[in-house]
Amino acid sequence: MSLAAILLPMFLQVALTFALLFWMIILRLRAIRKGDVHPEVAASRQADWPPYVQQVSNAFHNAMEMPTLFYVVVLLGFMTKTLDTTVYVLMWMFTLSRIGHTAIHVTSNRLAHRTPMFLLGAVALALMWVLIAGRILVFQTN
Fold first, then answer.
1. How many domains does the chain have?
2. DSSP assignment of 18-76
3. What main location does UniProt list (predicted)?
4. For the segment 106-136, what is each residue's pLDDT rounded down to a tens digit?
5. Cα 2 to Cα 141: distance, rounded to the nearest angstrom
6. Using one digit for the tens of pLDDT, what is the confidence trace for 33-77?
């Protein structure tokens, strides 16, 4: 498998995070320009953003949480040559679940729909860590 194919799920997760970041910035600037939030208040962490801004902001902050563990496990697996088809499938499960989770988060934001996507990603990520850590600890003890 090529390096690009191995890292594609990670690159998509990074692209999703940047898309949310820039969308959040645009919405925040729009809210400030419309007078929904005063610039001085926006500069503090206490800004009371309109719901449409807060929803995207929450999705962005969420994209900074679990995915950090994803980036680490992918790079760790790559560096230690412990990635295989199983981990690759789990990488795609995680990335696609995060895309689905984000799509729900920024649209209907229904917990009944969002939670299964979150759990799918969490389980995929936990399994990646178990597999990679297990292979390193059991098979690569030098």
1. 1
2. HHHHHHHHHHHHHHHHTTSS-HHHHHSTT----HHHHHHHHHHHHHTTHHHHHHHHHHH
3. membrane
4. 999 999 999 999 999 999 999 999 999 999 9
5. 27
6. 999 999 988 888 788 999 999 999 999 999 999 999 999 999 999
